[in-house]
Amino acid sequence: MEDTSKTVYAFSAETLDGRTVSLADFKGKVLLVVNTASQCGFTPQYAGLETLYRTYKERGLEVLGFPCNQFGAQEPGTAADIGAFCERNYGVNFPIFAKIDVNGEKAHPLYRFLKKQKPGLLGPLGGGAIKWNFTKFLVARNGRVVDRFASTTKPESLARQIEKLLEVK
């Protein structure tokens, strides 16, 4: 039996429409996991995320969006509001999950794991805290977290790293 304790495959999350999805469903894919928000200065990054998704989906990339309202209350809407916003304004086709917390006591277990694997600028002493919306985690086909990127990192700048991970089967 495969050990998934050090991979994202040990987790599941609820989609906007209320279905529970196991991340094991994405085995063998390269993942870009992003905490998102509809009313943030970085919200236009949805366009870049969708471009990456459309460009590399056939080669094995999945972009996973996790709306979060913890930063400046920039994701106040319902699941229906979030889905409609993403589709209407950015033509988002990649999976968007239900709103979650990424920091604090109620942080989603997936995000606790991601932050432990790649604690970011503040390091382990800072608890790996997510600093703002649109923090990105890149996950290899084997489910292991490869890198973490700040909100200011534009999605298109990740293309080269994504391509390298897609070459590994």
Outline of the structure:
With 169 residues, the protein is of the alpha+beta class. It contains 4 helices and 6 strands.
- What is the N-to-C succession of helices and strands? EEEHEHHEEH
Estimated radius of gyration: 15 Å
Task: Give the rounded overall mean pLDDT.
Answer: 92
Number of domains: 1
The CATH architecture classification is 3-Layer(aba) Sandwich
The largest pleated sheet is described as:
4 strands, mixed
Number of strands: 6
Helix/strand/pairing category: alpha+beta
Binned, the helix content reads 10-25%
**Strand arrangement in the largest pleated sheet:** 4-3-5-6
CATH uppermost class: Alpha Beta
Name the CATH superfamily classification: Glutaredoxin
DSSP summary: helix tally: 4
CATH fold type: Glutaredoxin
Distance between the termini: 20 Å
